[in-house]
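Let's practice the habit of predicting before peeking. Look at the sequence and jot down your guess about where helices and strands might fall. Then scroll down.
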Amino acid sequence: MKKFVIASHAKMAQGIQSTLELFVGRELDVTYMCAYVEGELEIEKQIEVFFADLKEDDQAVIFTDMFGGSVNQKMTVAAQGKENVFIVAGFNLPVVIEVIFGAEVYTKEIIQALVENGKNAMTFVGAPEEIKEEAPIATQETANESVEEVVAFTGTLPTTLRVDERLIHGQIAMVWSRELNLHGILVANDEVAKNETQQMALKMAVPAGINVLIRSIDDIATILKDPRAQSKRLLVLVRTVGDALRLAEKVPNMKYINIGNVGKSVEGKKETLTQFVMLTAKEKESLVELVKIYPETALQNVPSDRKELATSFIK
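Done guessing? Here is the structure:
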């Protein structure tokens, strides 16, 4: 079994806990240790309790806040002789997520490679206009040209459609993109397609190696029906259930319709379905229609959460 520890001086580990759970849920076996905090066990005792519960067939990765600091020193001493325990010092959030999802079984070499990948996520943020767009399937112009080439497709597109009012953000970049092993991210939004500033901001979150295309809903529908899209693992992001319905009416056979984060930025009376999904009456009506097209539509914030079929919320 994989186990993880986040250990820090003071309350940094608690802050990481709230952020990490937002990104990956609460299903992982993670222990959070805060050292030298009033009301907490002494760090030596916290370490002792953790190692006492560690079984021979468990693998543990321990993240400490600072190489050479007292927490790191105490962990290193406690882990001596334990080949199934790995310590990473000076972590950041990308490193933690990279390691957690990077392998089923760890070795020293695997951990080192994953840490290097996570370190690459630390970068100086330049001017937004320096960020370039890469088209995963076709530009708007070539998509329009390919309309004549659209062919009937009876299989299932390897495409996930997600309703997420933030569109591209940390969960998408660091968790969903890895879960879906994406070739590309498509943003389908009529307003953002006309706003270069918003487009540049969204592109900042796109992981290296994954292409992005931001277009109107109609243009994205055309691209998804292009034969070139039928072999690509794509994540299509829309802001509202109504937009998801518009796209679903145009594109058959998508693999998964996911209602993720929606409703927090909307004013007016809303019905709370889950912690992350709050719908107005109009959006609820759109969900009813969406489920008629895609009965397996489900509410799921992060991949580790259980899928809750939308049908259970609209009876």
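How did you do? The domain at 129-313 is CATH 3.40.35.10 (Fructose Permease).
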